[in-house]
Design brief:
14 strands; eight-stranded mixed β-sheet; Rossmann fold; globular; about 40% helix; 15 helices; six-stranded parallel β-sheet; alpha/beta; 2 domains; about 450 residues
Length: about 450
């Protein structure tokens, strides 16, 4: 007996999930991806048995090659495959706009596509992170409207959020606990049965709103903790103290786990999930409520790339160079080390802040092949990226940056300055190489 599964959205969640399911005997999985100039190449890449990700993803390359060779996985842009699917997973992006309102264009589109093709008895699972209340108030209503069916009676609907992270896609899906919420207990249990085939950890069954809230509160909690670390880094800079030494001292105490500050918070989840929580609260709650604490955390974390630009300006000023007209080489475009994921990367806000100050920006990243800020070319050769540069500014902690040849880079740079946004370098070592040095949480603005 073969179970046909469709996974809509072949990104950092959809691809590893689809491949893992396709590795299960009795599952036939089809990945559905819109064919566009930006992402359509993924279909051909996957059907050739290759991962489309540039970063380090242990086990994924081999897994994709295996399930494609086995014939249990394929990718397509043909939405008609939904008509023949018994299980449908939704893994499309759910960004927020400039006013922090969720942009559900893709989610609504695929819900309509499902509604027009769904057959009786199908299980639909939303894995995309959404504002609390979205699965029932948007996804379920659209499917019901276009299918004429009733959720919980004619088809089952569940929400089961992912906890993936670039560099740990397979490990996080298979080894971390999973929370599954359903519009009915039957819907939740059907979804749980699917995940038991690929998850080697506890799978908790609950109602759908609790599951949605668990995801957004989980990420808001992390966002708040990072914001505290970032603000304490600014405090330490101001007082001329090394925040990383303080973090070590604080964390010696059991049950203390102070987070690490940095150049900014990126990724698909943290920069937006706080806003999704806020939106769901105000859209579907019993009354209007402004969650002040998590909103402040967002403001602090959004400040960090701007602060990085101030550190660049200060370092250049110390060397007698104006930031206006200076060339700054940004090291790292991805939001996370050793990955090619640029979603909501703090590099974007940092570059904007530099250019508003009149700086010319050069980009370097060993993994990123393309980016929405397409006016900038991404240089892969670190030496070329540093030619005639007035400052190296590290935003992403890629392993390639750990052993920079400062002696060589100094020979091609115009002004040897370095701003460290991720605590990669030792200040005394960098100074010994003749570089002016600034860092988040270590060296304040003079």
């Amino acid at each position: 007996m073969v179970t046909k599964i469709a996974v809509i959205g072949l990104g950092y969640v959809g691809i590893p999930c689809a491949a893992l399911l396709a590795d299960v005997d009795g599952f036939q999985v089809t990945g559905l991806q819109r064919r566009s100039k930006r992402s359509g190449w993924k279909i051909d890449h996957l059907n050739a048995g290759k991962s489309p990700f540039e970063g380090d993803e242990p086990g994924l390359d081999e897994l994709i090659a295996r399930v494609v060779k086995k014939g249990s996985f394929k990718a397509t842009d043909d939405v008609e495959i939904l008509s023949d699917s018994e299980v449908i997973l939704i893994d499309v992006q759910t960004p927020t706009d400039a006013d922090h309102v969720p942009r559900y264009d893709s989610l609504k589109e695929v819900s309509e596509q499902i509604g027009k093709r769904i057959r009786s008895g199908t299980l639909v699972v939303v894995e995309s992170t959404v504002a609390p209340g979205t699965t029932q108030n948007i996804v379920q209503k659209i499917i019901e409207e276009h299918s004429g069916m009733k959720g919980g009676e004619d088809f089952d609907l569940a929400f089961a959020y992912e906890r993936v992270m670039p560099g740990k896609l397979i490990m996080n899906i298979t080894s971390l606990p999973r929370i599954v919420g359903g519009i009915t207990r039957k819907s939740a249990n059907r979804a749980k049965d699917i995940y038991t085939k690929i998850v080697n950890a506890n799978i908790h069954v609950t109602d759908i709103l609790t599951a949605e809230l668990s995801k957004t509160i989980e990420n808001a909690f992390r966002d708040v903790n990072i914001a505290f670390a970032n603000e304490m880094a600014l405090v330490c800079e101001n007082l001329g103290v090394n925040v990383y030494e303080i973090i070590e001292l604080v964390n010696e105490l059991p049950n203390r786990m102070m987070h690490i500050p940095g150049a900014g918070v990126g990724g698909h989840c943290l920069p937006k999930d706080t806003w999704l929580l806020r939106f769901g609260l105000n859209e579907y709650g019993s009354h209007k409520m402004e969650p002040r604490f998590i909103t402040l955390a967002r403001e602090i974390n959004n400040l960090m790339p701007v602060h990085m630009a101030l550190l660049v300006e200060d370092a250049l000023d110390k060397r007698g160079v104006s930031i206006k007209g200076a060339t700054v080489t940004v090291l790292g475009i991805a939001y996370l080390e050793n990955a090619d994921d640029t979603r909501n990367t703090p590099a974007a806000a940092f570059i904007t802040a530099l250019e508003e100050k009149g700086a010319r920006v050069v980009l370097h990243d060993p993994y990123v092949r393309e980016w929405d800020m397409g006016i900038h070319e991404i240089e892969r050769d670190i030496r070329k990226a540093a030619e005639n540069s007035d400052c190296l500014a590290l935003v992403t902690k890629h392993k390639e940056y750990f052993n920079l040849d400062f002696d060589d880079l100094k020979t091609v740079m115009r002004t040897p300055t370095l701003v460290d946004g991720r605590n990669v370098f030792d200040r005394d070592f960098v100074h010994s190489k003749g570089f002016e040095y600034r860092a988040i949480g270590k060296v304040g603005i003079a």
